[in-house]
């Protein structure tokens, strides 16, 4: 008897644009693990966090060392992305909430996440806290459609070619976190979190 294909849930990307100081999305992402093997191996080896470098290269451009940190918060995943030697806090911060963990999200998640961003960004985030908090809280409260949520916060403007590299790494980190968190939560969630 052939095995039933596993039903994939939606992945919604909600992005904060630091230049416009506004949200965009949600955009639907397709679950894919292309290029995620090294990250997944490291995440599976370590219990709750991973810090390291990810090589990033665009054709005709020099290799860029992207620094990343990933944490399993119990109800969500958190990642920071930066380029080695760049001033200020990380260039991008991701909050990943798998669909199967949404019912376990703590009520103060939006507040805690914004507080964390404020701590990392310092004065650069002044005036954005309420917009980021209210949007995340509103999306979390809308349980009408069980989707995996990815909140991608761009902390400051960067050159377009750097933005592309950071975005590619952010998507790989998000997919790796979705896969890894589902695996940690047991066979019922493995490969079905997306």
SSE layout and pairings?
Layout: E1 11-17, E2 22-29, H1 37-45, E3 49-56, E4 64-72, E5 77-83, E6 92-97, H2 109-121, H3 129-141, E7 148-154, H4 160-184
Parallel strand pairs: 1-7
Antiparallel strand pairs: 1-2, 3-4, 4-5, 5-6, 6-7
Explain what the structure shows.
The chain has 194 residues and is an alpha+beta fold. It has one domain. Helices cover 31% and strands 27% of the residues. The chain contains four helices and seven strands. Helix 1 crosses helix 4 and helix 2 runs antiparallel to helix 3. It is globular. The chain starts with 10 loop residues before the first strand and ends in a 10-residue tail after the last helix. The relative contact order is 0.23. The N terminus is likely disordered.
């Amino acid at each position: 008897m052939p095995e039933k294909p596993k039903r994939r849930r939606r992945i919604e990307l909600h992005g904060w644009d630091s230049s416009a100081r506004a949200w965009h999305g949600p955009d639907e992402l397709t679950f894919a693990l292309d290029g995620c093997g090294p990250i997944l191996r490291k995440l599976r080896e370590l219990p709750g966090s991973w810090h390291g470098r990810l090589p990033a290269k665009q054709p005709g451009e020099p290799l860029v060392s992207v620094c990343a940190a990933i944490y399993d918060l119990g109800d969500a995943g958190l990642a920071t992305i930066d380029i080695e030697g760049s001033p200020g806090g990380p260039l991008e911060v991701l909050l990943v909430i798998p669909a199967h963990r949404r019912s376990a999200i703590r009520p103060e998640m939006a507040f805690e996440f914004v507080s964390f961003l404020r701590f990392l960004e310092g004065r650069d985030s002044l005036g954005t806290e309420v917009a980021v908090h209210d949007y995340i809280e509103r999306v979390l409260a809308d349980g009408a459609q069980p989707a995996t949520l990815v909140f991608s916060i761009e902390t400051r403007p960067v050159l377009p070619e750097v933005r592309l590299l950071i975005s590619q790494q952010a998507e790989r980190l998000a997919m790796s976190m979705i896969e890894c968190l589902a695996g940690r939560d047991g066979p019922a969630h493995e490969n079905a979190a997306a």
